[in-house]
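A reminder from the course coordinator: this example appears on the midterm review sheet, so study it carefully.

Given structure:
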């Protein structure tokens, strides 16, 4: 367990550093926005493109993993939405926002720095499929359900934004290169490696800066507790059940799926709720609470899945 803490806590410490920097006013929120844009638009796509292109598609893409992981994601989404509507009396838009916070993990920013040291570069494949599940599908689904009844063009706007999403484009491009067996030229590969190496620190710092602008009080903690439990407990359990006992996948895929499902809620869920003016306060609480708990819960989950590792 100590080995996993030594691997994971420095990563969450960078998130904490961004949080402190914004809370203390050391840097302006606009700075972390710019850092986040750099990470999302340039560094993370460069890293994923290089890693995906370096592997045969059969090694990085497992259709049963994608189906099982997506199945767990949708079960959590619709189960949370049903609970929010039937038990908490929330309206459709608010319930969809809470459901997105339970089903949308920070797999893009936290997935690579947490999984690749544990699973190696092969872990880029599961990370890419999780991003496609949670970003492409949950964002589209959540947008349609959060939008006011009768609003036109929502799905079209979402689909256009997804088609231009730099991370999804990088994943698709890397998958094509891997399927065709085309190697990236040496200078380009080194450029992508150098640029991609900045993805982890910049993304994590920007995440902390975003969290530093959110607030949490006792009332919100209680309201966010159920969605946080769904994200950090129910989602990983469903991923294990579907990928392991039901689909019988190789241990590597089960470990990757459960650890990805155990990621805290992505700030994209908060941005989505803000965009549609529904449930943003509750979602912000889930983002903060799940990230704080995951800083300890994720190392525990990884330790239970993979066994002890050497302390660096």
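Designed residues:
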């Amino acid at each position: 367990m100590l080995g996993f803490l030594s691997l994971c806590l420095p990563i969450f410490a960078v998130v904490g550093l961004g949080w402190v920097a914004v809370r203390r006013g050391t840097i302006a929120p606009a700075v972390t926005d710019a850092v986040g844009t750099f990470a999302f638009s340039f560094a993370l796509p460069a890293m994923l493109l290089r890693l995906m292109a370096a592997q045969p598609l059969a090694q990085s893409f497992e259709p049963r993993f994608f189906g099982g992981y997506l199945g767990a994601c949708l079960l959590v989404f619709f189960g949370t939405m049903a609970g929010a509507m039937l038990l908490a009396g929330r309206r459709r838009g608010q319930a969809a926002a809470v459901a997105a916070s339970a089903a949308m993990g920070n797999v893009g920013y936290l997935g690579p720095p947490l999984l690749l040291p544990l699973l190696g570069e092969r872990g880029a494949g599961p990370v890419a499929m999780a991003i496609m599940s949670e970003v492409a599908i949950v964002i589209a689904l959540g947008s349609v359900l959060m939008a006011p009844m009768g609003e036109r063009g929502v799905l079209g706007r979402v689909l256009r934004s997804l088609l231009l999403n730099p991370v999804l484009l990088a994943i698709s491009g890397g998958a094509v290169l891997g399927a065709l067996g085309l190697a990236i030229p040496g200078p380009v590969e080194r450029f992508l490696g150098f640029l991609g190496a900045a993805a982890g620190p910049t993304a994590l710092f920007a995440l902390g800066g975003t969290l530093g602008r959110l607030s949490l009080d006792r009332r919100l903690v209680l309201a966010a507790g159920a969605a946080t439990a769904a994200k950090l407990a129910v989602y990983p359990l469903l991923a294990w059940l579907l990928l392991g006992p039901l689909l019988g996948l190789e241990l590597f895929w089960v470990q990757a799926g459960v650890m990805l499902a155990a990621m805290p809620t992505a700030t994209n869920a908060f941005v989505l709720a803000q965009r549609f003016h529904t449930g943003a306060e509750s979602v912000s609480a889930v983002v903060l609470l799940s990230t704080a708990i995951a800083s300890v819960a994720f190392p525990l989950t990884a330790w239970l899945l993979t066994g002890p590792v050497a302390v660096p």
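Residues 126 and 299 are 18 Å apart (CA to CA). Residues 218-246 form the longest helix (29 residues).
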